[in-house]
Design brief:
The chain is an alpha+beta fold. 45% of the residues lie in helices and 15% in strands. It folds into two domains: 48 residues; 153 residues, no CATH class. Strands 1, 2, 3, 4 and 5 form a five-stranded antiparallel beta sheet that branches.
């Protein structure tokens, strides 16, 4: 094959690459141009799916702070299981009543966090994230969560779970705190489990929790 033919072939290959690159750039620009519109449509579709769902009548449980870390908590967890059922999809809120001193709560959380951080990583407990004080100033909402098995998940927060599991680990709290925990369960039905995150985040916006990751959606 002559040098001229080789040169011509290389020019053709290069030209094809340039054309394909220009096509890719054009398609990418087109894709970006309507990105906001496509995102908005996806959110409208999600909102439509959410509106097809329904809430179950909320169930509320009062748990004395004095029962934290004791075997009495097992009885409270059984009551929650009996009242909610084993496989209830829902959002749950753990509040502190007016008799619980918030300053004491923040002090306990701060000490638990400091002691945990001081440990080697492999020995640390999976405590729930501590939110900025200014973001939940005065709030009596301790935590907001969701689960496909709400009663079981609440047991992990209230009674016992493996140390590395992400939870409140309230069994580590002292039992001399006055007042009560108010646990509210709001069952959800007729929507996909993944959409319950939107409801969870809305509750957290309404009542900013002291603990727990936010901004899931």
């Amino acid at each position: 094959m002559s040098h001229s033919l080789l040169f011509t072939d290389s020019i053709v290959v290069h030209f094809r690459r340039v054309v394909l690159a220009l096509v890719d750039v054009k398609e990418a620009a087109s894709s970006v141009a309507d990105l906001i519109a496509r995102t908005a449509k996806a959110l409208r579709d999600t909102a439509g799916e959410l509106e097809q769902g329904a809430l179950v009548e909320p169930v509320e449980f009062v748990i004395p702070m004095a029962d934290l870390g004791t075997e009495r908590m097992a009885g409270h967890c059984r009551r929650i299981l009996d009242g909610v059922g084993r496989k209830q999809l829902g959002v749950y809120i753990i509040d502190l009543d007016a008799d619980v001193p918030l300053c004491r709560v923040h002090d306990i959380i701060g000490k638990l966090k400091a002691a945990n951080v001081a440990l080697p990583k492999n020995d640390r407990t999976g405590f729930a994230k501590v939110n900025k004080r200014e973001d939940c100033e005065g709030s009596r909402c301790l935590y907001v969560g969701k689960s496909e098995k709400t009663a079981e998940r609440l047991k992990e927060h209230l009674h016992y779970v493996h140390p590395t599991t992400y939870a409140l680990h309230l069994n580590r709290w002292p039992s001399d705190i006055p007042g009560n925990l108010i646990v509210k369960v709001i069952g959800v039905k007729d929507i996909a489990s993944s959409l319950v995150t939107f409801i969870e985040d809305q509750v957290a916006r309404d009542t900013p929790p002291i603990l727990g990751k936010r901004g899931s959606v």
